[in-house]
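User: quick one, fold this
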Amino acid sequence: MNPIKIGLLGLGTVGGGTVSVLTRNIDEITRRAGREIVISHVAALDYDADAIEGLDRIGRITDDAFDVVNDPEVEIIIELIGGYSPARELVLKAIENGKHVVTANKALIALHGNEIFSAAQARGVTVAFEAAVAGGIPIIKAMREGLAANQIQWAAGIINGTGNFILSEMRDHGRDFDDVLKEAQSLGYAETDPTFDVEGIDAAHKLTIIGSIAFGIPLQFDKTYTEGITHIEQLDVRYAGELGYRIKHLGITRKTDKGIEMRVHPTLIPERRLIANVDGVMNAVLVYGDAVGPTLYYGAGAGAQPTASAVVADVVDVVRALTSDPENRVPHLAFQPDAMSDIPVVDIEDIETAYYLRLSAVDRPGVLANVTAILGRSNISIEAIIQKQAIDGSPHVPVIFLTQRVQEKNMNEAIRHIEALDTISGQVARIRLETLA
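Assistant:
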């Protein structure tokens, strides 16, 4: 049989890695796919030819991406440009031209995936996106196929390596957020503008996809609650450790009687949990199915070679499925398009979780009694109270509360009343707590 011809959009970090992996392992990949795969047409505006292994073994390179998606000889488009536009227009044009698409673009899938998958279904082509979530970890395939017999109850993941690196360094070396962020930028873990990483937007893109596959709901990025780690202080990291917890920036999705929770935020989790011990830039996703129980997926969540591994694996899957009719392929979001659910996404104020609270209180009798009275009026049960020593002779002392599970809107009300007390200085630090049991 003739080789399958690939059109590649982008020769950046992941694009270059994809060329290297595909050309270096071409014999093994051909054995797995059943047909030879060649990159025949590439679009790139800026790239380092000397740094890309195997670049001399690909076809022609152009600066016009639409020239590639309109190439009649190309059967599969790999989109590695990133961002929303022109990626969306290029992918939709490729689909219109009857080409299969492989992408690592989590932002594109999270925001425009419903439109893209609908177009692909109508045209009878596949859109594969394993590399869009957790880099080289095959979490999409695991949830969509390996756990197909299960009703997934919840999933929780460390799905942004930059944030995990920062929190790990703050815990292990007692460093402040700003100091570690500068190092992450110098090491290439964080962009010059780190907003997507440290404010949780990147993780929210990925969680949107995980939640849709887990529960068979449309992609709804706009309803995913997103909170970053910029407000996490060294004090909280240290106190959490003393209490037997670690702070991780988690994406959590859970099916409840009210609907589907979709939330990204810093979270205290018991230090004995495996996922609590995932450090540095590594990623991990913990999925709980009713039949299989908890399963943990761990590995490199970014980088040229790990992400390229997922990209090429998707290409192999597409090549294997080229002879299958569209109705018998694995659905894009795990569930058949006409069987998607309209279960609502739960508003963050309606979720229930336990909390870590840290407040700065005047050190005199009756102050904590006022605080506990406010918590009681909001139906918040206290698990533990710890008062620390004053810092540098301050008249205020740090006080830490661990609460039992409570509705978020009750906690919001209580915090407003606590911060209004003249015996409390500044804002109450609040971090949600999950046992992941």
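User: anything notable?
Assistant: The longest strand covers residues 245-255.
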